[in-house]
Amino acid sequence: MKRTARIRTSFLPFSRPTIGEKEIEEVCDSLRSGWLTTGPKVTRLEEMFSKWSGGQEAIAVNSATAGLHLVTLTVNLQPGDEVITTPITWPSTVNNIVHCGGKPVFADVDKSTLQIDPAEIEKHISPKTRAIIPVHFAGAPCDLEPMRGLCEQFDIALIEDAAHALGTRYKDELIGEKSEAAVFSFHPIKNITTGEGGMILCRDPERATRMRKLRFHGISRDAWKRYTRGGVPQYELEEPGFKYNMLDIQAAIGIHQFKQLDTFNSRRKKLAENYKELLRDIPEVLPLGDVPYPHQHAWHLFVVRLNIEALTVGRDQFIHALREENIGTGLHFPAVHLLKFYRDNFGYRTGLLPNAEWNSERLFSLPLYPLLKKGDQSDVVEAIRTLIKRFKR
Ligand SMILES: Cc1ncc(COP(=O)(O)O)c(C=O)c1O
To answer: Which of 185, 300, 333, 365 has the most ligand 1 atoms within 8 A of CB, as the residue to mutate?
Structure first.
């Protein structure tokens, strides 16, 4: 096949963090100070989150995965207990249920928005259901009200995977401010970063105290309280825990990133609107639908679905061809219930969750981050247009 020149001469990454001089200076300050691990900067970041969320307990951890694990542990699952979650998520949402001894039960998503469907959740509630873990997918909120109703009715926990949803609003509430528990991620592709990291917001101070212990081995005092002047080196072990604490070096980045959240998110919103406009006359590439209730989108991801019936190639070949054109893309997410571990150990099969499966074969994510330029977006869409022409049936 005759190949024309590439649309871009340099590779456009799927994501890139925005790191400024303030973050760099603050990290250097930590390095020079002699205090690298959990300390005053972690406390400062937690205080910023607590204030922002109207007084929720804030617990910094070294990833959202760790945060989800800690929150799920506090549900105290017993063998045979079930937790309902979405199949369209990063595996760690589901893995943590298994780590806590529970059985993941998947409820299908809405075909257009990819948010977990509360009516599907209700169908899966059984006497063994102990928790629901929805994901605010791509930065739009899932429909919390009906889920809260179910949790109250059946006395089960609601753990929000808010990895994508920093700054998202559901109706008149900020995600996290009214949550029983919500977990945010600061991985480098997220709306703000600490390198790796996460934050738990939760309502119950007792639950928060237990998670603070569990994030540092289960002991009653972290290093700052043991090794600084005035600290006491003794400790007691109350419950075997984990090494999930955030470093001051990470919090140093987060303090300055968090201050820019609104700026970052409004830039993401503008870019998302521009993609919608640019893709309007390409019917083979379908963006997600808007959730049908008042909301503010954090635009963590811009996910599209490829009309594979109209093309001679599938999604995987299409994104490979995009890479050949120097355009990076992401996959958020192949349906978790069809990944090997969940097929082999829980017997999940194709056909169980038709909306998730339909999307799983067709979806991919376009580059979206504050440093992206409108010219980059034009390159992305021009490359898509070129490939659609090349692969049209
Ligand atoms: C929906 C969802 N949940 C949880 C996580 C885990 O976040 P982390 O990488 O901070 O552990 C991710 C990461 O991409 C995610 O997308």
So the answer is: 185
